[in-house]
Design a protein that fits this description.
This protein is of the alpha/beta class. It folds into 2 domains: about 350 residues, 4-Layer Sandwich (Purple Acid Phosphatase, chain A, domain 2), CATH 3.60.21; about 70 residues. Helices cover about 25% and strands about 20% of the residues. It is built from 9 helices and 18 strands. Strands 1, 4, 5, 12, 13, 14 and 15 form a 7-stranded mixed beta sheet that branches. It has a 6-stranded mixed beta sheet with strand order 6-7-8-9-11-10. Helix 5 packs parallel to helix 6. The longest helix is centred in the first third of the chain and has 18 residues. The protein is globular.
């Protein structure tokens, strides 16, 4: 699917990202994602995604899941969901599988009234037990190592692996309290933030990494939409977490899930702000929800460049799949979610300068028009446009006298021409 983004881009690290699988046992005792509630027997978009990765011969260094592998802490769902993630790891030849802990992993929505019955000491209420019993959870990088208990105790831990430094944050750390005010929002404690702020510079220096990724389940910044409701409860201390990452002086990519609606933006900050990639869901039941009118189930492959500069930049491209008519297809339509062929860059791209460069390149070539792949060839930075920046670029080109062939339901244009061209 790389050709959809205008050709294969030279990359050093590839990551498969799938979030919110929501495996659970259904009425017929089949264990499938929540999205299968209205599907035929055997309907499983996650299993089909494994087949799509195999079909497209996708190779990756890591498989990342930002949480909600299971649904309402279903033990059967966790078992099969974790098996599917490990199957993806094998199919793409990844070195490691890394997961964030989602609210559905820790019983935050468990409504079994027997758990509240007075004197019911026999009721098994252990929201973390089934997770901690998995030797390779939340990261296969920690197999046989007690460092995973730092993650469970402190609420975060670092994973250093070659050119990549991961910060794994347990934003569901306080959910096992079973308190209602923790059900929807994530949290990182004041004390954990202090510890993180004190040690992050040392961890970066010791790692020698060139790519920096923070993984958690809940969005650390407000995740809103003008067209549909996504909830208004923000992660506690999320903005402060972003500030700690920005203050490190290195560009961070934040990966999260939870909202079931994909989004790719820059966080708040003053020039070195992190990129925030909100993964859409690959297995949630979107039927009957507003979000289902604006996005499909999605899975992603991120391609990240390793910088050889002393102060590395963050550049990456996105190959996005969408679940349409029971099949995984390139995410090219405006209602598919995050589009295939978009990207991100920190420091950010200059959209106006890119529009001027495109106008000049068209004039130099004396061409009637340039196709999308030709545009990306003469202005390579186009591959790093975030979805919102695509529209900004479109407006800038039009102001400079450009005209696109741009189907209404298509995220990227077919071609561009300029007044006074050939």
């Amino acid at each position: 699917m790389d050709q959809l983004s205008g050709g294969v881009m030279a990359t050093d690290v590839k990551i498969v990202v799938i979030s919110d699988l929501h495996y659970r046992k259904h009425a017929n005792n089949e264990v499938r994602p929540a999205a299968a509630a209205r599907g035929a027997v055997g309907y499983d978009p996650v299993a089909a995604f494994v087949d799509a990765l195999r079909r497209d011969d996708v190779r990756a260094d890591y498989v990342i899941c930002p949480g909600d592998i299971t649904d309402r802490a279903s033990p059967e769902g966790l078992k099969l969901g974790w098996e599917k993630l490990n199957e993806i790891k094998e199919v793409v030849g990844a070195r490691h599988l890394i997961a964030a802990t989602g609210n559905h992993e820790v019983c935050s929505r468990d409504d079994n009234p027997s758990h509240d019955a007075a004197g019911n000491a026999e009721a098994s209420v252990d929201p973390l037990g089934m997770l901690q019993a998995l030797s390779d959870y939340p990261s296969s990088h920690w197999n046989g190592v007690e460092r995973k208990w730092i993650y469970w105790g402190k609420g975060y831990e670092f994973i250093s692996d070659g050119s990549v430094l991961f910060l794994l944050v347990n934003s569901s750390h306080f959910h096992p309290t079973m308190r209602m005010n923790e059900f929807e929002r994530g949290r990182i404690s004041d004390y954990a933030l202090k510890l993180l702020s004190d040690e992050i510079d040392q961890k970066i220096e010791e790692s020698g990494a060139k790519i920096f990724i923070a993984l958690l389940h809940h969005p650390p910044v407000s995740h809103e939409s003008l067209t549909h409701s996504l909830g208004r409860i923000e992660m506690f201390n999320g903005s402060r977490l972003v500030e700690v990452l920005e203050n490190s002086g290195f560009p961070w990519l934040i990966l999260h899930g939870h909202k079931h609606a994909g989004r790719l933006i820059m966080a708040q900050g003053a020039g070195n702000q992190p990129i925030v990639f909100a993964a859409g869901s690959i297995g949630a039941d979107l039927v009957g929800h507003q979000v289902g009118l604006h996005t499909k189930l999605q899975g992603y492959v991120l391609s990240l460049q390793v910088s050889d500069e002393a102060l590395p930049a963050l550049k990456g491209s996105v190959t996005a799949y969408a679940w349409v008519d029971n099949s995984w297809v390139p995410a090219t339509a405006t209602n598919h979610g995050i589009p295939t062929g978009c990207g991100f860059s920190s420091p950010g791209v200059n959209v106006n300068a890119m529009a001027e460069s495109l106008r000049d390149k068209v004039a130099e070539q004396n061409a009637d028009f340039l196709t999308l792949s030709e545009m990306q060839g003469v202005v390579p930075e186009l591959r790093y446009l975030m979805p919102k920046q695509v529209d900004q670029f479109r407006r800038a080109v039009v102001r400079l006298g450009g005209a696109f062939t741009w189907p209404d339901n298509q995220f990227f244009p077919d071609d561009v021409s300029f007044e006074g061209g050939k």
